[in-house]
Design a protein that fits this description.
The structure is a homotetramer. Chain A is an alpha+beta fold. Chain A has one domain: Chorismate synthase AroC (Chorismate synthase, AroC fold, 4-Layer Sandwich). Helices cover about 25% and strands about 25% of the residues of chain A. Chain A contains eight helices and 18 strands. In chain A, the strands form six sheets. Chain A has a five-stranded antiparallel beta sheet. Chain A has a five-stranded antiparallel beta sheet with strand order 9-8-10-16-11. In chain A, a hairpin with a 4-residue loop joins strand 1 and strand 2. In chain A, helix 3 crosses helix 8. Chains in contact: A-B, A-C, A-D, B-C, B-D, C-D. The interface between A and B is large, with 113 and 113 residues. Strand 11 of chain A pairs antiparallel with strand 11 of chain B.
């Protein structure tokens, strides 16, 4: 099991849903960077449960404690470690899962891999709760990037059948982004958010859940990041995003739509904007040959519906080798997409800062 | 620049389109495995240009020479190196590209990153030709997997507006797969292939190109491969696939369709098949929590239209800081998707064998 | 800065001498292994200060708190995180060190590298205190190894001019090893330990310090561990050992003595011991071609004298660019060698377990 | 098996003694660096056999062919691959070694690890011949370093009982270094070299071999390279050096002598040299806390006597499980130390350039 991300900035996630704590170590973080803990907690609040009526009523006190790596509020070059204590845990809910795995969860595959040693309580290390320390790491990276003019923002592009309008690919949404970060339901069109909320409540009322798509844009990324056949920013970003629980698809720029496009349509023409080389469209999503063009980095991530639903489901008893009905108890989000928005931003920020730490392609 | 893939089986790709040679080193390959060179060359032929009227007439003699790693036709535990000499190169075609970058290509981003030192001839290290050594590596992995009952097959699922029927997600296509490997246009429905071929020829006639989607299935993968937040088989597979030139999207199982699904529909119910735990559907694409379920591994990859088109395009002169018209000369595939089919299989095989080399989760 | 060790078992150390806490994350630890916390604390006690009159009187409560990775006292496959709170810190002692670096310490090089952002208090991340979490990780590995019959033991081979007899290279010391683990001054000859203790007290009386050599033996290692030009167990062990603060040399088997030996003398003849292939001597220290022979793994590690001495020393003011006299205050061990003995064992155990997790050279 | 070195500059060695070729891939090499092929061949000649009467009369045409990575004699950012064809091979000499392993060689351990699949001819991948591609990589790094004022030089410090005077630790040997690179027997004192030569010839006359120590100095290394508990330049250098066949010990600066020193003697006092901070002595060997001080990097490496000797030796038959006498045929150096001098320089250059490619500790 490797729960570590990054080539140069190594982000190591630890913890289980019902362990004493969850946390993160960031090794390779640049020194001398201020960490605004208040802003970090605000960022973490965007991921916290219990903010809206569509999320689980379970409250988490996601207040991180920084154990190391800071001196006077600035990174000191030593690994930064942060933990969140696990307080609100109700282990009793999960007793049966080791034998009768929940469809759509990692219960069965963890059993195959770890042979019964795995922690099943609350999903163990596979729990969505582990995205909290990921957000600590990402939140710190976002601050470092923002200081250099690089902004990462995401919105809910789709939930159930409801769509929000997509980002404008050349970055013309700049004005609308600030409000996204404050909204419990971050959409570009307010009406879309309301209809999504209804779709979620409908699903919950029926003991069911819904999935969705998150779209993310990175404004003003440096040009020239990434490179090599497998060291491209697209490869690294995709690997990182598929590490978020429930992700089933990642596409960059025009993504799967390229299958229906002609080259003459998909190629982004170059043009000059003053002294700067830019493109007139951005079907590439800001990446050519694995290297950033300097145009906005644009990608979408598909999240499956929460597998924990209250309806009865078909499963098996692993010990008795027979089929059984399963009813999953406990409190679960009927849709994790709204809370996953800052997680996508966090992961993108980590991948981007990591690429900014690549050795220079030329020595001075 | 890192052109290396894999955690335990490290596949290192080298070469440029017009360098003396291209090749690959595979470090960490299991010892004692027979390598059938004839079968390997047949596999490489599936990627070679000039096989059909839809691909570039340029002929490549993609005959690999194994330099090391074999004794009496079996791997010996030492790194296996293989090279393909570059013979058919016409450097003159590419003179202007360093100053006037081709839209949709890595010309511009390579210039930003390598500051003029990069090899522009034929796309240099970014050339699709570099997928030939990737196929050498993947072809060897496919043989090792097949010996253990694991089969990797892909077909063209879409080109332009034309669709082939998708794989049956539970692996019921087994009978149809053998013919896919022999077909220059690997589709499940013969008619689809013919219409795709027409779509490509139409595009070429108009000096244009088309993109597409390749779908890949891995039959009989071991259950329990992959794991950890970022060591999942999905993360590793996605990173590898985005390393193939022109890839813009990767989705697993139901992929982006999960956004429209309810949990009750998307969750794959468990059931018993004799003593074996299987699922009744396979929206997960064979992966839960980053770990293989043992059901077929199923994913799709989107390829953009070949950026080299013969139509005039808008670009800029990097030296003169002004806009210029560009006409790309040379011989190019109007659609790379048919030749990319074995490349997708190769990359999947490398990622899978690498995961099979993960340390055991439990010690004996 | 990378404070991470291991290829498959990734041990990530964090903390600074005066940060809120120090700790470790172990990712890739085999699942299902019992961790005896009491035995672990006993092992940590061997490293703790204040045990003898030759070490600093400063007391550390090195009681680790396990945050994750355990279920019912067994590893669960998820990363194991452990922390030790820093309680006994007196920051005032170290005020001046950022400007006037201590000779023999990392004060100056950290200043060059981190440009003033580094944590100077108590040596920051460079402090010997960081070997405590290393011992947590190593102590857990030692338990896993011991369960499989692999025992790691070390003794003080030299301090100042005083020598202990070396280990018998074929492992005939087995009987004497148990007492080494209980001794505050682990030597094979009791008299040697007493004379070393005197040498240390003499040095301290003169405001000075002494260095030494630790010898370590691994009994019953599996044969066939390690391999490849740079994946040898010797390379990995050496890299790990040089990570311990104050280490200036590592030698294996006959080590530097090989320079005076003839091949006929140094070559270890093979012979049969029942069905087992063994060697009649062990100048190789249990390693040939980077791979374990199955004979005891035997190596020695040189530790420099504690750089913090109470005598006045020559240094410079980095801000004023002039030479200055420096007197180092605070409490320091006049010799760190006795407390480094378990650290060497810990590091060897981590490197060995990591090599045991290498993928098999042949697939089943 | 991993035959790869480096974090950012990844040097991957392939080949076996009797495979069609041996070679190297360098991924991550800075772009835009001129490679002087003539100077590279001269450097490789220093490692070639048959130069003096103390080395094997076997001739190797170690002329490397660069397959990729260069454009107009400059690195282009793509991986640089180079091969040396194996021409002068006499496989017949090595028939028996798979069953009756040579003492002191990897024959036995390779058999344990690779279960009979390994290439035994001429030592296979464990052959000293594999240091030739290592010298290609190192030779290129040396050129890149020299262009920045960093010079790497080594001499034979000891062979048998004969000692050369050590390097002056503060780098005052600058004038004497140029001649070292031209000498077939690189020593600082001419008389020492002659006596070493005699010691080797004596050993050979008796069917035996001798070992030795190589000392290496890096002049004018940048200060501030390396860092972190396990990312120190000492750890990385030691790991690389132990990858050279026959190395049994590595020590830095005062090395094992620190065991007899007091802190007041071993600590290197700081002083000003103009505006530059230097040390008055260099017992640290240019490294404090794993980070370069900017003083000369100074280390010694112990090489065991060539295990292939013509005397009869005790071994076993692995198939018949019984003891057997073995006489090793073939042509072997009675001492590999003279030819290992450029190999040590090469490895140091790779490790140093790799550290120079570490991400900056602070972001601009």
């Amino acid at each position: 099991m490797w729960s570590e991300l990054g080539e140069h900035l190594r982000v190591s996630i630890f913890g289980q849903s019902h362990a004493p704590a969850i946390g993160v170590v960031m090794d390779g973080l640049p020194a001398g960077e201020r960490v605004d803990l208040e802003a970090l907690e605000e960022f973490l609040q965007r991921r916290a449960p219990g903010r809206t009526d569509t999320s689980t009523p379970r409250r988490e006190e996601d207040r991180p404690r920084i154990l190391s790596g800071l001196v006077d509020g600035h990174t000191c070059g030593a690994p930064l470690a942060a933990v969140i204590e696990n307080t609100n845990t109700r282990s009793g809910d999960y007793e049966n899962l080791k034998d009768v795995p929940r469809p759509g969860h990692a219960d069965y595959t963890a059993q195959v891999r770890y042979g019964g040693a795995q922690d099943v309580r609350g999903g163990g290390h596979f729990s969505g709760r582990l995205t909290a320390p990921l957000c600590i790491a990402g939140g710190i990276c976002l601050q470092i990037l923002a200081r250099r003019g690089v902004e990462v923002d995401a919105h809910i592009q789709r939930i159930g059948g409801v769509e929000d309008r997509p980002f404008r690919p050349l970055g013309e949404d700049a004005g609308a982004l600030a409000q996204l970060r404050r909204a419990p339901f971050p959409t570009l069109e307010q009406g879309a958010g309301e209809r999504m909320r209804e779709a979620i409540l409908d699903a919950r009322a029926e003991g069911d859940s819904v999935g969705g798509v998150i779209e993310c844009v990175v404004q003003h990324p440096p040009a020239g990041l990434g490179g090599g056949m497998f060291g491209g920013i697209d490869s690294r970003l995709a690997a990182a995003l598929f590490g978020i629980p429930a992700v089933k698809g990642v596409e960059l720029g025009a993504g799967f739509r390229v299958a229906e496009m002609r080259g003459s349509e998909n190629n982004d023409p170059f043009r000059m904007e003053g002294d700067r080389v830019v493109t007139s469209s951005n079907h590439a999503g800001g990446v050519l040959g694995g290297i950033t063009t300097g145009m906005p980095l644009l990608f979408r991530v598909a999240f499956k519906p929460t597998p924990s639903i209250s309806r009865e489901q078909d499963s098996v008893s692993l010990s008795r080798h027979r089929e059984e009905k399963l009813v999953v108890h406990g409190r679960h989000d009927p849709c994790i997409v709204p809370r996953a928005v800052p997680v996508v931003e966090a992961v993108a920020a980590i991948a981007l800062l990591d690429a900014m730490l690549d050795p220079p392609a030329r020595l001075p």
